[in-house]
Amino acid sequence: MAGFLSSRLLRVAALALCATSTAALARDVVVHAGHLIDGVSAKPRDKVSILIHDDRITAVQDGFVTPAGAEVVDLSSATVLPGLIDMHDHITGQYTGKNPIAERFTTNNLDTAYESVAYVKRTLDAGFTSVRDVGGDTDVVVALKRAIKSGEISGPRLWVSGYPLGPSGGHGDPRNGIRTDLDLHSENKVVDGPEAAVRIVREMHRDGVDLIKIMPSGGVLSIGDDPNVTLMSDAEIKAIVDTAHNLGMRVAAHAHGQNAIVRASALGVDSIEHGSFGDAEAYKVMKEHGTWLVPTLLVADTVVKVAKAHPESLPPSSAKKALEVGPITLRNLGAAYKAGVKIAFGTDQGMAPHGTNGKEFALMVAAGMPPMETIRAATVNAAELLGAKADVGSVQAGRYADIIAVSGDPLSDVTELERVRFVMKGGDVVKPWSAAAQ
């Protein structure tokens, strides 16, 4: 009997200790925002309190209020926004200026994994609390996502596609431009035929990806293919879209050429990445099918500069393609916006240094989008394309407490978003407020 009572007392004590520990972990925070661009309202709000319990926002109230026991984060002199979302990133790679062919044969996935730890931290510190990675080694990027989610390393929330799928000889084929007798492990990276497409999508879902990226057109930084040419068949695209959607995954389509944009949109992809040669017909089809455009102006601007200054640092044929495609990509966003195409923010980071994602905003404004619309593209619009509006993309009750702040007004000077002074992710301050330039 004594042993039974002792055992019962130990269980009660353990439960009490767990309850005490849970209570100790519970945390209330209030952010006093001088100006708030919440991601949903047409205009900023002044003097607002954002109430947070643990990792979620519980309320947004007018005026500066301080609930009893709440920790105060004073951003009363700042402009506060939702954490930003980059919908087209390559978070595990970065342009180094070195010979790209040599790098392919002198680095491996372990190098990539270690380097990525720094890349994700820089991206988070730049105010991007969520990122959709659309092209990296599947094992590396899925493991990186898990490490961030578990708190092992600091970085944005990740949605990952793993290795992008395209046809033999297309954009993404690892054997492009390489000796034909070399084995570059193209299995599950090249899709030829709808049956292969179905199998590979199922296997990638099993391996932990969140979405699928396809390559229906040629690309700029690949060797020997033409950005204007459609390289995937309708049967291949439809097989991928149907399989991915059935498994609850969205599909992003790398498409420069007009024909690839039209066909991929009509076949049900969720987003067109780049969309360089879009025209009135393409925008009409995209609107009819609810297809998003992720324009990636930063990579277009960066690769044009590199092609002019250091063409030898790009793969063969890429400099010429960059000089042809880049200016068109930069110019056409304005036409897509005026046509009413849905637009989500994406940089195609990997060419420009990680952490400079905010430079995309000024390029979007220069192309014809109002500053508020560029901010919506990087917040509520991006969250909708992710399928995560209930969690990220706005400062509202129920969302994660992903919050950033800048010292000036990004609606009058959008480059303020290149100088993020404060970052909170899930209620945790990962970059304390600093009014000084960094």
Automatic annotation (TrEMBL):
Molecular function GO terms recorded: hydrolase activity, acting on carbon-nitrogen (but not peptide) bonds
Keywords of the record: Signal
Superkingdom per UniProt: Bacteria
InterPro entries for the chain: Amidohydro-rel, Metal-dep_hydrolase_composite, Metal_Hydrolase, Metallo-dep_Hydrolase, OTAase-like
Domain annotation Amidohydrolase-related: ranges: 79-430
Regions that span the bilayer: none
Family matches, as SUPFAM superfamilies: Composite domain of metallo-dependent hydrolases, Metallo-dependent hydrolases
Signal peptide: 1-26
Full protein name: Amidohydrolase
Organism listed in the record: Rhizorhabdus wittichii (strain DSM 6014 / CCUG 31198 / JCM 15750 / NBRC 105917 / EY 4224 / RW1)
